[in-house]
Amino acid sequence: MNETFEHPDAAIAAIADRVLPVGVELGCEDLVGRVLAESIHADRDSPAADVSAMDGYAIFPGQLSQSGELNVVAECVPGSPPPELSPSKSSGSGVVRIFTGAVVPRGCDRVIQREHTIESQATIDDDAASLGTIRWKPQANESQPGLNIRRRGENLRGGDLALPAGTLVKSPQMASLANFGIRSASVYSLVRVAIITTGDEMASEGDGGPPISPWQIRNSNSLTLAALIDACSYTVIPTLAHSPDEPEALRGVIEQAIASHDAVLLTGGVSMGDHDYVPSVLKNMGAETIFHRLPLRPGRPILGVVYQETSQAPVKPILGLPGNPVSATMGAVRFALPLIAKLAGVSDWNPHPPLVRLEDAGSKTLPLHWMRAVRMIGPGLAELVIGQGSGDLVSMAQSDGFIEMPANANDEGPWPYFAWS
Ligand code: AMP
Ligand code: MG
């Protein structure tokens, strides 16, 4: 079989190029975890006025040269408009006490932080309205114009782009949305993923049913893949289905899944065995094979196809992952998650895995991209979790993720690291 793609990224891109984001939902109010389908623009300047970045004293030019006691003539508090003061009058007579976030009075050119002043409280003998006095400490004279003032529009000008379409809304993006008064927005629809496991060896244990036999296995892939899809905030709860190793039954299950989902993930039945019907069934359905077999371990038999019911219908990706639990899980993280992000409308759908070094890479090399389970043991440092191969789901559960080494490498890296979600 022709292994068309040298690198997993190229194989993923070849499918991603063919699929478009799913539909759009208008006026969504629950935006956390969703992907914006419209750009968000600032409704006003951020900040909306010149505001103080400190608790201190707003001063007019020239007031620092005044020695001795200066009267505090007004207070600026957050949530109130600033007092209108005439510079000539104020510069002669006093300063304005200001609190963080309050609007700086017109004409003031800086804010001297409290710590750089000596403050005297008003006494009982003073006028009831007196706000006390201050004197400058030497540090105050080192200040420059503009000090401690957050300028109107310095974050963003009203009307400018705050968040482009294709942004995944997490907590920081909520700050921006809230700040610009966005309560609802158009988002991409949640991606519907179907997970189909295959194999006659799967036990269906139920109340009162026969106990599991040694020639049967429990269906772990189904729940592993469901957990991965569930962890994506932009998917609906995936649909789980199972098919025996029988072409007609398999075709029925796939057709049903594809009709009501945006992507289908299959596990098992993609190798060269006599009971591996997934590639031929998909081919007979008219799916277009993008890749079958990649220079990859584990998961070499992986199958990537796209399916379009009619020429007007959306192109849907279908991944056939090998049945071995480690292959299926790593394959789902590496191949399925980016494609689902693309379907979900995430503009930056390509993963940016951090790089980690291996404490000990061992001496073995492979002429394939090698995905190896690791445990993080320090900042940017991982150790290999040595298991019994692609069926060893026990050791996989003791890992934090996997690294990917290119063909023939066996050094410490650093290598791209894909954490489990
Ligand atoms: P296959 O790719 O169908 O040849 O399966 C390879 C191996 O993975 C076999 O040992 C299967 O028993 C195992 N396997 C297949 N499907 C699952 C599943 N859903 N859960 C756990 N193991 C599986
Ligand atoms: Mg099988």
UniProtKB/TrEMBL annotation:
Catalyzed reactions: adenylyl-molybdopterin + molybdate = Mo-molybdopterin + AMP + H(+)
Annotated keywords: Magnesium, Metal-binding, Molybdenum, Molybdenum cofactor biosynthesis, Transferase
Gene3D superfamilies registered for this protein in UniProt: MoaB/Mog-like domain (3.40.980.10), MoeA, C-terminal, domain IV (2.40.340.10), Molybdopterin biosynthesis moea protein, domain 2 (3.90.105.10), Molybdopterin biosynthesis moea protein, domain 3 (2.170.190.11)
Highest taxon above the source species: Bacteria
SUPFAM superfamilies xref list: MoeA C-terminal domain-like, MoeA N-terminal region -like, Molybdenum cofactor biosynthesis proteins
Domain MoaB/Mog: 194-342
Enzyme Commission number(s): 2.10.1.1
GO molecular function: metal ion binding; molybdopterin molybdotransferase activity
A Pfam family reported for this protein in Swiss-Prot or TrEMBL: MoeA_N
GO cellular component: cytosol
Record-level GO BP terms: Mo-molybdopterin cofactor biosynthetic process
Database matches in InterPro entries: MoaB/Mog-like_dom_sf, MoaB/Mog_dom, MoeA-like, MoeA_C_domain_IV_sf, MoeA_linker/N, MoeA_linker/N_sf
Class in the EC hierarchy, top level: transferase
Cofactor(s) recorded in Swiss-Prot or TrEMBL: Mg(2+)
Pathway the protein takes part in: Cofactor biosynthesis; molybdopterin biosynthesis
The protein's role, per its UniProt record: Catalyzes the insertion of molybdate into adenylated molybdopterin with the concomitant release of AMP.
Family as reported in the entry's similarity comment: Belongs to the MoeA family.
Protein name in UniProt: Molybdopterin molybdenumtransferase
Organism in which the protein naturally occurs: Neorhodopirellula pilleata
